[in-house]
């Protein structure tokens, strides 16, 4: 790959629904420059600090460039280089010496940097091998999708529709850190006269785009949504004709709502009753109104399915579904109505018997690990200690596994402490890829040869499948032919299937077939009744409330409610918690806890001071960020730091009986709740791991 070339590709950060375009210039297998793609129809040249910093992956002294096997005891972080043949032998021998159901495949965002091609092939490998694998959205957006799925409003209107038509925009837990491509559309809508309301637990970068900011205690979103619904029904602001035609259970819901007055909600949310009245009236009358839901953080509590379940009833009550500028806006894990990728898995079925499968239920996975049910665990592009709740228990479980294999660009804490074999991953420019946004499909051309001895996940899986004699694993001619299988549902103007070559001829971009900027115009909903369900019989049968509900969190003995989320300067635990890339390490030199001035003053904590965060589960150290951008009694931290989940609960949100009642979206997230105490340190001793690990 010699000669200077300019290549159009996509950012590797994988922060869906945002996927930003890139232009890279390479020469003699070196990356010369990287910038935003001005022609990209989604990002229009935008590239945040995370995308810009990704160029620091290459020629980085911390990057893994050859397979490493552990020497000495786990946790000593001592390694020696080994050959790929030796690495394959270790993995194959370990798999062949146990039963398939005792082999687990866990994957993270790190293998999604080139789109779904790695994850889907890993699914195929697991299905044909009879191995354990899980829907890893349970650490991210799945709990929000679970609640939306019970109501029946999983599809979204597009950001373009919001910009052109919405009169009221409610950003409910949504941040531009998660979807920065929303910002220009918010600006366009406001210039047109739209009124923007932000509802969140803290002020964020989104706040400067809002006409009104409402701060809520964590976990109280469902209470506010029920009070809004109460006002809408009590004041006759609901759309009875829409309700009669397209919903189920309104009579029971209306009766149910009588108890959820603004006065009741005010005691929980701290929002004045009249302000709740005003918000409900604005949403119902200053229409069309769009609700943009956050993707993850607002659902990470004891009853995390309740907010999206209750909030999604508001468009149905007011008849704002299937109309321009209405419905639910762009969100992580959601998409507009369109024809997307085909599934290359339709010709295979899982060889793992159902009765032996460990469900996509975080608490059950952790319990299986601690019970010694797995002998081999692969971690692909994931730092499990940063993503699972109650990582104290997870750590004990990982130590029970005989062989732990990590595949990543850089070392991470899970690998340092528990891996026996570390495999060097290719970066996104070193292999071909394919991504999609809500509206477009994008080709990602290979721009560089893999550095050192790094290998793509596809090549590793193909080699393992061959050595394990897994038949029919890769029935395609090559990787390009495999990608064509994803494109096979897309057709050109002539009716021919879309291919990689055709995408190349059109600059690597293509709008999806059948794209609708407005969801549910046909009013067919993915519920048992095919209507929007205020009353959910499947929820009742699974032991959940059949009607939208609010359940107060159980307090613990510690005084401060701890919660976590995302910032524009980091993405989960990518790049060894961001510390492997100089730009991100400078922006995030260590864990920083947001704390309100009142709470800081009571504890004699100054801004920037070293502190310890602790509860009955563990403790870790950080620095204090004293700010009134968060409510008293609440503390907040960026996710991805290892210590964060040494204090979180890990209890299940829903039982196993309710885990699979929404097809394709398990309710298996564990509780990330924590009540903590914060104390000032006399000296800054650096971040500590859990005292119980």
Automatic annotation (TrEMBL):
The keyword Iron applies. Its cofactor is Mo-bis(molybdopterin guanine dinucleotide). Pfam families: Molybdop_Fe4S4, Molybdopterin, Molydop_binding. SMART domains: Molybdop_Fe4S4. The keyword Plastid does not apply. Signal peptide: none annotated. Keywords: Iron, Iron-sulfur, Metal-binding, Molybdenum, Oxidoreductase. One of its GO terms (molecular function) is oxidoreductase activity. Residues 4-62 form the 4Fe-4S Mo/W bis-MGD-type domain. PROSITE patterns: 4FE4S_MOW_BIS_MGD (PS51669), MOLYBDOPTERIN_PROK_3 (PS00932). It comes from the Bacteria. Belongs to the prokaryotic molybdopterin-containing oxidoreductase family. This is Molybdopterin oxidoreductase. It comes from Dictyobacter arantiisoli. The lineage of its organism: Bacteria, Bacillati, Chloroflexota, Ktedonobacteria, Ktedonobacterales.
């Amino acid at each position: 790959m010699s000669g200077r070339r300019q290549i159009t590709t996509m950012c590797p950060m994988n922060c869906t629904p945002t996927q930003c375009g890139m232009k890279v210039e390479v020469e003699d297998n070196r990356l010369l420059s990287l910038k935003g793609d001005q022609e990209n129809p989604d990002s229009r040249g935008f590239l945040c600090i995370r995308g810009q910093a990704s160029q620091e992956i290459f020629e980085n002294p911390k990057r893994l460039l050859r397979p490493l096997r552990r020497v000495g005891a786990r946790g000593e972080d001592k390694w020696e280089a080994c050959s790929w043949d030796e690495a394959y032998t270790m993995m194959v021998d370990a798999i062949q010496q146990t039963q398939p159901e005792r082999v687990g495949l866990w994957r993270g965002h790190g293998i999604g940097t080139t789109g779904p091609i790695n994850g889907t092939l890993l699914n195929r490998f697991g299905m044909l091998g009879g191995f354990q694998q899980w829907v890893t959205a349970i650490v991210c957006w799945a709990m929000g999708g679970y609640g939306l799925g019970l109501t029946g409003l999983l599809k979204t209107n597009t950001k373009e529709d919001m910009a052109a038509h919405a009169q009221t925009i409610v950003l409910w837990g949504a941040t531009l850190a998660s979807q920065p491509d929303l910002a220009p559309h918010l600006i366009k809508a406001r210039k047109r006269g739209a009124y923007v309301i932000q509802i969140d637990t803290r002020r964020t970068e989104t706040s400067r785009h809002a006409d009104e900011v409402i701060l809520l205690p964590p976990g109280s979103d469902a209470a506010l949504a029920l009070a809004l619904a109460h006002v809408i029904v009590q004041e006759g602001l609901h759309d009875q004709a829409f309700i009669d035609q397209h919903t189920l259970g309104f009579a029971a819901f209306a009766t149910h709502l009588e108890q959820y007055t603004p006065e009741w909600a005010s005691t929980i949310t701290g929002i004045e009753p009249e302000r709740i009245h005003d918000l409900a009236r604005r949403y119902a009358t200053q229409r069309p109104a769009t609700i943009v839901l956050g993707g993850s953080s607002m659902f990470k509590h004891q009853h995390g399915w309740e907010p999206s379940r209750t909030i999604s009833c508001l468009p149905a009550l007011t008849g704002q579904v299937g109309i321009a500028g209405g419905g639910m806006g762009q969100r992580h894990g959601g998409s507009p109505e369109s024809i997307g990728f085909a599934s290359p898995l339709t010709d295979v079925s899982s060889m793992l018997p159902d009765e032996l499968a460990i469900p996509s239920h975080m608490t059950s996975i952790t319990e299986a690990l601690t019970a010694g049910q797995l002998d081999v665990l692969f971690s692909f592009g994931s730092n499990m200690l940063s993503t699972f709740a109650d990582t104290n228990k997870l750590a004990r479980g990982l130590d029970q596994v005989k062989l732990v294999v990590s595949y990543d660009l850089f070392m991470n804490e899970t690998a340092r402490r528990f891996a026996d074999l570390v495999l060097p991953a290719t970066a996104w420019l070193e292999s071909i890829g394919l991504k999609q946004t809500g509206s477009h499909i994008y080709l990602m051309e290979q721009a560089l040869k893999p550095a050192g001895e790094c290998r793509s996940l596809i090549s590793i899986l193909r080699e393992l499948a061959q050595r394990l004699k897994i038949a029919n694993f890769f029935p395609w001619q090559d990787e390009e032919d495999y990608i064509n299988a994803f494109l096979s549902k897309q057709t050109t103007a002539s009716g021919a299937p879309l291919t990689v070559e055709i995408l190349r001829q059109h600059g690597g971009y293509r709008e999806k077939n059948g794209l609708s900027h407005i969801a549910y115009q046909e009013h067919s909903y993915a519920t048992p009744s095919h209507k929007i369900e205020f009353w959910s019989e499947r929820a009742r049968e699974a032991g959940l409330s059949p009607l939208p509900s609010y359940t107060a969190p159980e307090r613990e003995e510690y005084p401060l409610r701890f919660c976590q989320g995302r910032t524009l300067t980091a993405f989960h635990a990518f790049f060894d918690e961001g510390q492997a890339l100089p730009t991100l390490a400078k922006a995030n030199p260590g864990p920083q806890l947001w704390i309100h001035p009142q709470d800081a003053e009571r504890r004699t904590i100054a801004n920037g001071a070293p502190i310890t965060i602790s509860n009955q589960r563990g403790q870790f150290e950080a620095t204090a960020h004293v700010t009134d951008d968060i409510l008293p009694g609440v503390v907040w931290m960026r996710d991805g730091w290892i210590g964060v989940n040494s204090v979180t609960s890990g209890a299940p949100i829903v039982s196993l009986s309710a885990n699979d009642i929404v097809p394709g979206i398990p309710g298996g997230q564990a509780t990330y709740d924590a009540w903590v105490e914060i104390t000032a340190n006399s000296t800054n001793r650096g971040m500590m791991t859990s005292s119980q690990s």
